[in-house]
Design a protein that fits this description.
alpha+beta, 97 residues, globular
Length: 97
């Protein structure tokens, strides 16, 4: 299997692209749909397996920062969610679910 077929390498390349995209211009909002796999309240993150987020990234599973602590406490592993993802100042975070 070639290096570009390694899922970790693809995820790292996508993440780098996201960081570069998030740093361009003002805040942008994207819509996503996925399944919550894990919640890490201490880190303020949720691991979400999501469909393609049009204009941003292909379908994959990755950790997202959750902007609102109340939202973080509402999410549970196994939840199927529609969410808003905001990119601003080099950061990418879930603002609504």
């Amino acid at each position: 299997m070639g290096v570009l077929n390694d899922g970790r390498v693809r995820a790292a390349v996508c993440l780098l692209g996201l960081v570069l995209l998030a740093g361009c211009g003002g805040p942008r909002t994207f819509h996503g749909h996925g399944i919550v796999h894990e919640i890490s309240a201490a880190e303020g993150q949720a691991l979400i397996e999501h469909d393609e987020i049009v204009g941003l990234m292909p379908a994959m599973t990755m950790s997202f920062t959750i902007d609102d602590p109340a939202l973080l406490t509402e999410l549970q592993p196994g939840d199927v969610i529609d969410f808003e993802l905001t990119s601003e100042n080099g950061s990418l975070f879930v603002t609504k679910a």
